[in-house]
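PROTEIN DATA CARD
Card holder: PAS domain-containing protein
Chain length: 65
Origin: Bradyrhizobium jicamae
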Amino acid sequence: MLSSATSNTGAGLIVPEDRNVAFAHLNRAKQGDGVVHEFRIQRPSDQAFRWIKDTAFPLLDAQVA
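Structure generated from the sequence above:
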């Protein structure tokens, strides 16, 4: 369950049906994979749905092989 602080920002805007897949893609990026995925958000201001296409990838520094 999301806290009320996050329910109107960030992950809380992702529609529940898309949230698990969006988090799975984010976790893949955290593990070093580049991923492109789409998910829906619902704006709290007018309840409109919007599609988001996200490209997630790690940014590595010189110390990471």
